[in-house]
Prior knowledge:
The chain is an alpha+beta fold. It has helices at 15-18, 123-128, 130-133, 137-159, 198-208, 246-266, 268-274, 289-300, 312-326, 377-386, 395-402, 415-423, and strands spanning 27-39, 43-50, 53-60, 76-85, 93-104, 163-164, 170-171, 183-186, 189-193, 210-218, 231-240, 286-288, 330-334, 347-348, 351-355, 357-362, 365-372, 408-414. Strands 6-10-11-18-17-16-13-12 form an 8-stranded mixed β-sheet, with helices on both faces. The chain has a 5-stranded mixed barrel with strand order 1-2-3-5-4. A 3-stranded antiparallel β-sheet has the order 7-9-8, with no helix packed on it. Helix 4 crosses helix 6 (246-266), helix 4 (137-159) packs across helix 7 and helix 8 (289-300) packs across helix 9 (312-326).
Amino acid sequence: MEFLTGITEKETLQLEELCDPRRIGTEVKTDGFVHSIRDMGEVTFVVLRERSGLIQCVFEEGVSALSPKELRESQTVRLCGMLQADERAPHGVEIRVKSGEILTSPYAPLPLPVGKWKLNTSLEAKLDNRSIALRNVRERAKFRIQEGIIRGFRDFLYSRQFTEIHTPKIGAKGAEGGSNIFKLDYFHKTAVLAQSPQFYKQMMVGVFDRVFETAPVFRAEKHNTKRHLNEYTSLDFEMGYIDSFTDIMEMETGFLKYMVRLLEKEYASELRILGITLPDVRRIPMVRFDEAKRLVSEKYGRKMKNPYDLEPEEEVLIGRYFQEEYGADFVFVTHYPSRKRPFYAMDDPEDPAYTLSFDLLFHGLEITTGGQRIHDYRMLREKIAARGMSEEGMEQYLDTFRYGIPPHGGLGIGLERLTMKLVGEDNVRETTLFPRDLSRLEP
Length: 443
């Protein structure tokens, strides 16, 4: 009888271990994809692609039992040799190969030149060959940055005593209202895909006080723009016992500061690969919705068209205004009109035409929507009635308020949009692993 007692440490080393100066001059073993091959005659340089980056391996004629002539791009190999310092090599180290083995070989040439520094191909070609395109070092780096965003969100909220929850994505009713809901047949009943975890977040505030979730949400919007997806990942949190909706904005500011520090410390290689300059999050200005409209109208001569919402061009101009006037990369736009916010948004007691809500703009693009929620049972039902909405399908949600819940609020951050702005892309599909939009259901 054999028993497993844990993880057996492998002999193979990854890039971060190979970069340890104490290993210089020792024999090492590593594995990875053949990323590129450069035959110089008596010497062949083979660059391996590992999960953390690239490592240069040197084959000298007659030294290795494995001939470099047997190698080709996209094979996976395991190589053994002497680790040496060389400032010309990626990360300043290289392996002088003594032996090795081919683990797997492809059956067809790659459809994209992933070994090149930059994939000079169309977005459609990259999306059609998504799992291959992401083998390119720069393409892959975007999603390492995205990992850092999620990691920062989780770590920061854990440190602030939030509890992570996981809510259903199939429900009886949409949380946001409107017609942008995907409907599906659910055992001969009509169900919908979740527009957001909003109802469940609020319900769980009555249990854990502070909750968060990172999960997909679905919007049946017939948009075909560079900023919209029909399925995206939302970073949500909800917190109780707030004094005002400013508490929510302060919590997000704290997250952004934590995220930037984490990216600087743990993702420096990806930042360097992509040439990213991280945004300034030390101070984020706040401006009322109506004041923001007035400021950009006066400075840029743009006539205000929609008094109840911000148009994409206005968001861009607001971002530009606060960059030019205050050097700000982010700006909170507060007090959105009540008629453009969901029924659960708390109206401003001083002017019920506006809400205690906000959007966060990053370089002129909305990446966050949040605010204070109605916590009074009667007030919530009155607003539902005033909107001409039905309470059907919301009975359990309303019961939460019937039995008491603290003052609370929260937000949702669009992960792909935040990533897009951080890495300097202009299409949200570039920072979505497998985008779903009007025309794409594959791969």
